[in-house]
Specification:
The complex is a heterodimer of chains A (363) and B (349).
Chain A: H1 3-7, H2 38-45, H3 50-54, H4 66-76, H5 78-105, H6 147-183, H7 185-200, H8 203-214, H9 219-250, H10 253-260, H11 265-273, H12 278-302, H13 313-322, H14 329-356
Helix pairs in contact in A: 4-14, 5-6, 5-14, 6-7, 6-9, 6-12, 6-13, 6-14, 7-9, 8-9, 9-12, 12-13, 12-14, 13-14
Chain B: E1 7-20, E2 23-36, E3 40-45, H1 51-58, E4 67-76, E5 79-80, H2 86-92, E6 97-100, H3 114-125, H4 130-143, H5 149-152, H6 162-174, E7 180-184, H7 192-209, E8 212-217, H8 220-224, E9 229-234, E10 237-243, H9 244-249, H10 254-262, H11 301-305, E11 310-314, E12 317-320, H12 324-338, H13 342-347
Parallel strand pairs in B: 3-8, 3-9, 6-7, 7-8
Antiparallel strand pairs in B: 1-2, 1-4, 4-5, 9-10, 10-12, 11-12
Helix pairs in contact in B: 3-4, 4-6, 6-7
């Protein structure tokens, strides 16, 4: 390990760091993102330390925050970095890809050629006459639509489902769990029994029923319903996690101290307790995104999810699997992209868990 | 509205019980005391004697269930706190009665900047704007002796050492200029040199602001130089109550004598430390007589059968003991034999 070199940023070997009055002879070590500044930091907060007392104004060093430490640990984890990079690439491509593609080739996800000779599935890099062509790098589907454009759109929708459902589950789960945990007693009992009941319902059936009852009016309303349905089922675990955290936190002295200063219950929950649960919450949220995306793919694969001409990776895989023997590219491209995205998100989530909770790492 | 008799706080027959599976635990069982404006009261006792519960009761922070203030009056500035609606009590907490807790390592929120935690109070109670509250936070940190307060105010608690965090706690407690400051073992978690600094700080701030203070501790050395009155608690009851000097010089209760003998004397040549034999009783199952009888050197049959009376030795000095007068007389004899050695005891702080 060459940690020493990471920590100390360019200490000059010639000059002493402090002169005889204990004043730094040059501005203190700069902190970079990810730096652990502990050696200097201890001096900065040391009590009765002459150097602290006599130091001039504004010359002390900003300590490392928990987040910076976590970020540094995350960067040391190769798989997590790989996951992060892939997730960023996929996200950026899905966001910026469709307009660029449209500008270059003129295809978007819903474009169906008017020429009936073209409304069939071509292999990747193949022009209608069979020669090599850059026009459709992933080929076309049965209706002649560009698969690349559809995979990109599918990515947008899949990521959106994942993120929005996770945000919904965050908002509901965190406030519900924190409230139950903090209030405790009978309130907690009732609230958590409700969660238990919801847990015991088979969620797929719930979603299917929801979609069957309210869905199908337009592709967009179907999509919104999907967000709500997936969000509504994925908050349960979040609520349990947050509740557990809050219960272990609420008896700590800083909560009593906050109560002793007259802070209201709501503020104690949301200003003092919830931020303290952020570590596990972030980790679980990162792991919820791929989980929700998988649920969405599953629903779309069954035909309950996103409706054509919109597409998600799940619905594209569903289209592809019907023609797998003849047109394998229809399944391979969305399938591989989705697998890559899910892998990466899981790696990232695992990496975040290790980074935010260093005690869990193997020594 | 200032109370007529100059008392900032009067506690009358306070009883706080906890319902457990093991029965009713009488953590505080009939406490009476009075704190005059500007004075300092020390509450001394072993762990589990009810010191902290007394204080949490004063600002009604007893977790309910299982705890319950069964009876009593807590008259703060003429108002009985126990009769006020919760909203009103919340307005008193932090603004007029502030607390400092035992462990500075855990009593600051680790996820909130120091500035935020200090600002929360003045924004809440004094209606300060963000800017005013921020400036006030810096002023308070400055006052409690944190160097370079402006640069430090945005730090997180983990960037401060224990002593500095306790200073922050004091800054928080004093930022609304409370009339009563309750310090619950403020120096227990700190090492001796820092202890002295913190006590000195509380003392000087008390003189500056005129705040009344209740100082809870199990360390007699701490109360000696800090307080005007002392209450000695045992098993949820007041065992002895006197002016500080008097209590140290002529204790009127065997328990207090035991406590005083337990203070390690650095000048003593003999290595062995004195300890009171046995353990504090289980307050859920108190014997019928004196709760200290089983550990007491002076105990006789009557102690195990009858609950002792609260004897007034002087108008200012009370002791809960069947033999209070005898113990008091012995103490006075010992004192004259030593020729006023209590001064040395007081210097130990």
């Amino acid at each position: 390990m060459n940690d020493e070199h990471d920590i100390l940023d360019e200490p000059s070997p010639v000059e002493p760091a402090l002169d005889n009055l204990g004043q730094p002879t040059k501005p203190p070590v700069r902190t970079r993102a990810g730096d652990i500044t502990r050696p200097t930091n201890e001096l900065a907060v040391g009590e009765g330390d002459v150097r602290t007392a006599e130091r001039g104004e504004g010359e002390y060093i900003v300590g490392t925050s928990l987040w910076r430490d976590a970020w540094k640990r995350l960067l040391k984890n190769k798989l997590a970095v790989f996951g992060l990079v892939v997730v960023v690439i996929i996200t950026v491509t899905c966001l910026l890809g469709p307009p660029i593609l449209k500008a270059i080739t003129g295809f978007d996800y819903a474009y169906i050629p008017s020429d009936s000779a073209l409304t069939k599935s071509f292999p990747p890099f193949t022009a209608p006459d069979g020669s090599f062509s850059w026009l459709h790098p992933m080929g076309t589907d049965n209706a002649g639509r560009d698969i690349l454009a559809r995979v990109l759109l599918g990515g947008r929708i899949s990521l959106m489902v994942g993120i929005i459902s996770t945000i919904v589950s965050l908002i509901i789960g965190v406030s519900y769990g924190a409230t139950a945990g903090y209030l405790g007693g009978k309130v907690d009992d009732v609230m958590m029994r409700i969660v238990d009941v919801l847990y015991s319902l088979p969620y797929i059936i719930l979603v299917v029923v929801l979609l069957a009852m309210f869905g199908g009016k337009s592709p967009l309303s179907q999509l919104v319903l999907l967000f709500i349905a997936l969000g509504a089922i994925s908050w349960l675990t979040m609520a349990r996690i947050v509740r557990g955290q809050v219960i272990s936190l609420k008896n700590q002295e800083f909560v009593t101290a906050a109560r002793a200063t007259g802070v209201s219950t709501g503020k104690i929950i949301f200003r003092h307790l919830v931020p303290n649960t952020l570590g596990p919450v972030i980790v679980y949220a990162t792991l919820t995104i791929p989980q929700v995306m998988l649920s969405e793919a599953f629903l779309s694969f069954l035909g309950f999810g996103v409706q054509a001409p919109l597409a998600s990776w799940g619905s594209l895989a569903n289209d592809g699997v019907q023609n797998i023997a003849i047109f394998p590219w229809q399944l391979i491209f969305p399938g591989v992209t989705m697998a890559l995205a899910l892998f990466s998100l899981n790696f990232l989530g695992d990496g975040l868990r290790d980074a935010l909770d260093p005690q869990m790492r193997k020594v | 509205m200032s109370s007529r008799n100059g008392n900032i706080l009067e506690v009358r027959d306070l009883r706080t019980y906890f319902q457990t599976e093991d029965g009713s635990v009488k953590a505080v069982d009939g406490i009476d005391f009075v704190l005059k404006r500007g004075e300092t009261l020390g509450i001394v006792g072993e762990s589990g004697s009810g010191k902290s519960v007394t204080n949490l009761s004063i600002i009604r922070l007893i977790p309910d269930p299982p705890g319950k203030i069964v009876s009593g009056e807590i008259i703060f500035d003429g108002q009985d706190i126990l009769l006020l609606p919760t909203e009103e009590v919340r307005k008193i907490r932090g603004k007029r009665i502030a607390m400092i807790f035992q462990d500075p390592m855990t009593s600051l929120n680790p996820f909130m900047r120091i500035s935020k935690q200090l600002m929360e109070l003045t924004e809440l109670h004094l209606g300060y704007t963000k800017d005013q509250a921020y400036e006030h936070a810096i002023k308070m940190l400055d006052m409690v002796g944190i160097p370079d307060a402006r640069a430090r105010v945005d730090s997180y608690p983990h960037e401060f050492s224990g002593g500095m965090r306790q200073r922050v706690m004091i800054a928080m407690a004093l930022s609304c200029q409370p009339e009563l400051l309750i310090a619950d073992e403020p120096t227990t978690a700190l090492d001796v040199t820092i202890q002295a600094q913190i006590l000195e700080l509380i003392k000087s701030l008390k003189q500056e602001t005129g705040t009344s203070v209740i100082l809870i501790t199990h360390d007699l050395g701490v109360v000696a130089g800090m307080t005007d009155h002392i209450i000695v608690m045992y098993a949820g009851k007041v065992f002895e109550q006197a002016r500080t000097r008097e209590l140290f010089a002529t204790p009127g209760n065997p328990y207090t004598k035991g406590l005083l003998r337990s203070v390690p004397d650095p000048t003593s040549e003999h290595g062995a430390l004195y300890q009171i034999p046995g353990l504090p009783p289980d307050v859920a199952h108190l014997p019928p007589g004196c709760p200290f009888a089983a550990r007491c050197e002076r105990a006789e049959d009557i102690c195990r059968k009858e609950f002792p009376p609260f004897v007034a030795l002087t108008p200012d000095h009370h002791s809960l003991c069947h033999f209070a007068e005898e113990v008091y007389a012995t103490s006075q004899r010992e004192l004259s034999a030593r020729g006023g050695r209590q001064e040395q005891v007081l210097d130990l702080e």
